Structures are given as C-alpha cells and as structure tokens.
Amino acid sequence: MFKYNCLAVSAILLVLTIPMFGETVNRGTNSGRRTGELLSGGDFEKINNFSDLINNGWGSTFRESMKDIGLEVAINSTVSHSGKKSVMLKSSIPRVLHISTPYLTVASGAKINVSVWVKLDAVKTGAKAYYKARLGYFCYDKDKKIIPGGAKSFYTKDGTVNWENIKRTITCPAGTKFLKIYAELKVCTGTLYIDDLSITALGDASSPVKTTSIPVKHQMPKLTSEKLSDMDKIMLADMAAKFQGNGKIIFSCESFEKYRDSSHLFASGWNKISGGNSSITLTDRIAHSGKKSIFITSQDARITHISTPKIRVNENVKINISSWLKLDNVVTGKKGYFKARSGIFFLDKAGKVLRSGSKVFITKDGSTDWLPVNYSTYTLPGTHYIKLWAELKKTTGNIYWDDLVVVQVGDGVSLKELFVGSNPYSAQPIIIPKPLKENYTALFDPGRKVKISYFADDQIIQEQMTAFLTRLGAAEVKDNSFSTHILIGRPTDKDISAILGEAYLKSSATNLGKQGYLVYAAKVGAKHIIVLCSTGRQGRYFAWQSLKQMPVYQNGRYYLMGGTIIDKPGYKERGMVFGSIQRWYEGPYNNVSKKFEGWSYRRRFQALKFNLLFLAGNGLASYHQMAVPFSQSVIDNYAKLYDDCQKYYIDAMVGVRPYRQKPRPGREKGGVVYSSEKDIKGVADNLITLYKIGFRSLYIAEDDMVESAFLQYKQDKERFRNQGEAHAYFVGEIYKRVKKSCPDFRLIFCATAYSGDAVSMPESYKTYCRSMARMPLDISLVYTQPDSKSVTWYRKLTGGRKIHTWSNFYTVLYGYKKYNVFPVFPMPYGGGDATLDKYTESHFFLITDKPTSMISTFTAADYMWNPARYQARKSFKRAFFKVRRLLKQMERGEKVEQYRLDQFRRIKTEIAKLEVKYK
Asked: In this prediction, what percent of the chain has a pLDDT beyond 70?
C-alpha cells in the first residue's frame, strides 16, 4: 500500500522532478538508409496516397473532410521533379495547410544538410507579408517540445515558380533530440509541390540516440511550498484524498515488472485483438515508471485492443481508475472517434459484458507525452467483474499504456441490503434533500382546525398550504378555536423568538443565512405549534418544502411528526438544465398522449429546493432572433417566465446561442459575424431587453459547435487567427456594452471548449481556452467536468475566471440513454466531488424524463444541496424508500401531486420481484 500511495502522488509531480525519456518509433523512416541519411523515401515513389504518408510517420493539419472547403494534401502522380510522384499542398481558402516529416533522431548541436525541390503554382500572399508558401524546420527536446530558437523557416515565396532546388544547412540548438522538416501554405492560396527531399547529418550525428526511461522512485518528492502553485497543491490534495487511506486497491499493475515478457503477460489472463500489420507486446523501450509498459501499434487501421484479466468487484460500488497513456502519431480514422482510446467493461457473473456495460475514458489522436487518465464511476447493477482496456480503434499509430490501478472507494449499495431486515425509514419522514440535522419525537394529529400566521412576503406559502391541509383532513380557521398553530416568519419575530427561546433553538435559527431554515413541531398544552422560520424569504420557502414531506401515513390516515429540522445548503446555486419551455409549465412529453404532462419542472424545482434554472434551448426565442430585436410575443413569454420564477424564488439564467442562428439576408451561412458591429450590437441589445424584463443572469452559448461553423465569413477569417479569438472578442465587446446600462447583471459564457478533462484535453482546445483569458474577468464560464482538479485547470487556462459546472447524464447513465434501455435503479449521483462548491459558482445537471431516473434525481438533490455532506450509499437508500412510499400512496388511490402511477409500473414490478428474491 505504501508503495502505491507514494507513487500516485509523486506521479503528478513527475514533470517537476524527474526527466522522462522515450525512444521514438519512426515507421519507414530510418530503415535501409545510407550512411548519414536521416530520411528514406524522400522521392515519394513508394507512397501511394495521403494515408500512406501519415502511416509512415508524417504529420499534417489536413483531414479528409477539409476537401469540402477547398483544402487538400495528396500524393500527386502527374507533377514531379523526378520519377512519377510528388507531395502536393493545394488551398483555395487562406488557411494553414501543413505537412511535416516524421521525428528524426539527431544529436545536440548537429549540422544537418537539407535538399528539396519545390514548385509553386499561383501562390497568392495572404493578409500578412509572410503568408506565403514556406519551408522550415522544428528542433525538439527529449520530451518533443520545441527548443527555444529551434523553429525557423528557410524559404518563403509566392507566385508561379518552376522546379527549383532549395539547399540549407541547419545547426541544431543545444538540447535537440529530434528534428522535423516542414512545408506549408501559410494562410494563403495556391498550390505547392515538393519532391526529392534529402536530409543528411554531417559527421556521426545520424547515429540513433538510444534512450531509456528512468524509473520513478517510490518516494514523495521533496518540494517546498514555494515550488508548488495553488493548482499543484489542489491536485496533490485531490490525489491524496483519492488514493491515500481512502479505499482499497483491488487491482494494481505498476510498471508491469511482474511479467517476464509478452508470453507471460497473455498467459496471465490479459486478452488482445491484433493481426495483420498490428501488434501488442510488453516493451522495455519506453515506460512511465519502472522499465516496462504495454506497446500497441497498428499500420493498417484495424481494431488493435488489449484488456486486463477479470477484476472482481461488487455491483453499485464506487471505483477510482488511474492509468497513463503515451501517444505517437495516432491518426484519426474514417470516423471522428477512430482514435486511441481507453475505457472499462462491466461484466456479469458469467463474464459477459453487461448491456451498455462499456465506458470510454479518453479518445485522442496525435502525439503526446505521458497523459494521466483518471476516472471515477459506480459499477453497474449486476456487475461481478470489470476489465480495463486500451486500443487503437480502426486507426494507425502507436500507444504505450502503463501504471494501471483500480481503487474501491465511497459507499456503494447492494439492492439486497434494501430488503434484508427492517426498513429504517418506515416510521419517520424522508426529507429530500437530506437536512443537516433531524430530530423527531412522536406522531401527532394536527386536528381539524389550523391557524396560520405569516407575513406578506410569505403569501405564496400560505396559498400552497390549502391543498396540504386538505390532505391532512384539516382546514384553516381565522379565530382562536384552532388545534394547531403554524407560524411563518423570521427567528427574531416576537412570537417565534419566544417559542424558539423556550426550546433553546434561537441561536441555531439566527445563524443559518438567507437559504438556511428551521422547522419546529411540538405539542404545547392541548395545542400543537409548527414554526417555519428563516432570515430570508427563500429559506422560509425551503422550510415549507420540508414541512410538505413530513406527514407519515399510519392506521389509515396521515399524522405529522414532532421534532426539529435545522438545515442550510453548501451550494448557494443549484439547479437543472433543459431546453423546452413547455416542460417548465406542463411537464415531460408523453409519447402516448402526444402531450406535455406529468410533474412540471416548476414543481420539481420547488420540491427539491433548486433555485437556478438554466434554459439551454432557444425555448422562447426564434433562431432568427439572436442578433435581431426580439418580437413582442417573445418578450411577453420571457416576462411570463421571469414572473413565474420570481414567485418561487428561482433565478432563471437565459440568453442567446448566436451560432445557431439560421440563415437570413446578409447572413446566408447562418450564425453571426463575430467582427461585425451590427451583430455585436444586436446581441447586446437583446441581452439588455432581457435585463429590462428583470433577468440578472444572462448567457451567451456557443457549445456543441461543429468545426464547419468556425469563422464562416471572410471578414472573420481575416481578423482572427482561430475561433477562440473570435469568441473572446465577440463576447467581451457585448459584455462591455451591456455593462454600461445594466451594472448589476452577470454574463455567463458557455464556450465551444466546455467539456472534457482540462488536464488532458487536446492542444487545440487548450489554445481555444487560453483565448478566453482575453475577455473581462467578470465573465464566468460553463464547464462540464465537475471535479475540483479539472475545474482548477480550466480556470487557469481561461484566465482565472468563475466557473459554473454542468453535469450531463448522471441521473441516468449515458449508455442507457443512448440505447433507450434504462436501469430499474440508476446509480447514486456521481456529478462532482465533495469540495466542488469551493471552486465554482453554481452546479446544475441535465435531468431525464424517465421515471426510473427519479431515485438518482433524488440523490442529485442531496449532492447539490451540500456536497460535503453527501453520502452516496445512505442517499441511495433513502431515495429508494422515498419512491417505495410514493408508490404505496398511489396504490391506495391517492393523488400524489408530482407523479402519475402509470409512469412507475416498471418500478413497481421490479420492487415486487426483488422483495420476493431477497426476503
């Protein structure tokens, strides 16, 4: 245990303390070369097409889909300097079109001769003088990072030029380990051909540099606090909590040192799929730690896959998975997800993969240094085993896999436990979200007459109590003949203060904040007293939501439970995200009746004490009205939504999604022009309109944006280098304009790069995120990787701004949603870690309309109310019995406000089966 604990923490700081080396695999580049020759096949005669070029280790910015927009890199069989073939780069739009040789191993300080023949056809200079056809080189260190001063061009030209020979001698800077020669059309148009490329080292610099990995020492690196950034400290704390003394290791394969060779590995239960020009071996050439790792290579775009032996684990338990991946020239295949991948299988007792029992942790291409792959999940119902796996999914390239560890942590729950022994919740209320403190005394009959004392601020509570009292068989009276007195107000109000003082609760009630509350129910003489109090209106409304859940059914009728509830949330803002405004008022869409019906989202918010609505869809505004003024009907609909949310103490986050604007005159490609004064003003004016209605939380969303929608218009392409720059400028300008007339609003931006682990996201995403740092710091961002480590990375990448986390697919597993197969009892909520509220402004999740997701929705409410108090196992059990109790109410013929019995027939049937099985 000590060995791994230290390794897990030291691995994070690897880049700070231990240099990593690796031997580069250059397929087809160094074999059969003459003395001093670093590159073979520079005449391109044995290369048939672009895919062959990439499979031989060349790199390019080109993808097949770029042909549709006028960009192409290809092997040309009609134009050549010698032989029959050359490499052609052709561009009809000003973009960077780039091709580079494989990594060539050289010595530090070496002199390299480069000779290449070049032909240009109608190359037109771009917006800047050096935007032309170019040749150059990159010099890399041992980690394949460009050496300072190691990136230079040695040929820049435009026009039409017949074949000419370009010769240069390159002196590699100190520290150089690898070299690449490149050719490109840099943000210009025209055609560039290259042929007969020769790269020769002078002296003995061409001798391959044999490198090996340095083993990671199994001890904590001695680093002073001055050497650690705040981000590093948080990462260390997160990993320490995850792996040190918190859970048990159920599988560990550090460094693969226990396996003698590949035969020993596969004889030990590891499984592989390979063949043709692909293979999987245990290698000692490159490793993350120790001397060995798994090496996966493929040159013919087939599935090349390896999985661990079966790992025994129970169902419904939380596990943390850690491994490391290194990529070398992985090229995306015919589909976007045909890349290097790693994930997990969930297996049943017979060792078969459960339906939807496969999850993918990472999907990536290109070349990278060692990447940490950390993932937390709950095992599926019916799980007996798991397997970890890594693969090249119908793609080419190389990957290395090392340091695999699985730790069982957290509080899973076995369904069997729910049916064995007595029900711990049978004789007491089940309040969701679970309160901070609950102390219950005895049941009491509230009687037939109830008096309510409240203040004008709490009129909505008094209005809603009518149905509640009717359910209890009571009615409100105005005189003093009451049997139960309900007081609603502040803890400092005279009557309430006296009651709390006698019960020694006054100090507790006055320190709960505006959302915290106290519910107190007791018998005083011949009468009963119920107090709902908080210093804020929102807190008193939450107290009312708890009181609604307190009746207990016994002996054919309902009773109230005496006692005290004291509570306050950890998260100040908690909510849901959805797109259809009809669901807010009318409930989910019923495919049978073809109507919106059932439990409306408005009621869900009230019952679960949410206070933030993120209306992510267009909802109320036409797609044409993102940058043109809202129509009066749209304004009226927004005003109705605002009034409704205010009534129930809910903050609605509303806004626009500019890129989804449909084509219109002047914007024939749809979307907006990010550099356009007209579009900036149009979006700003619409946000000001929303502000005038009353909304204070406004957003601009550019999420789920496809690459074909990037910089569609000429003026944007000329002004911005990439989409990140365009968004930063556009959103920043809008913010400045709105701020002038709306000083107390807040702007939330849902960026295109808003998902995935910020630590291992592609470099293009990181470049986009860094552009966000140019916006005013008051603009906050939405991010969908809800753990404190990733949030901290994302904050750093984007300039240290505030973050709102959005959890997708946690109330019902994504695999089940995708295949329309839903578990009877989904997992406890897994939407974030216990400290997330300390790093974010708000947390909201995507809810599903399937009734089977209700148990997990209840645990989500538990989590978001206070992450630090969330206990998955206990939350799951409470939610289960809550649903069971609701079903019994419906079976008695009672109308349960939030639900319809027909929605829960499957749950009812499955509960009956389980009760028989386990009792």
From this structure: 83
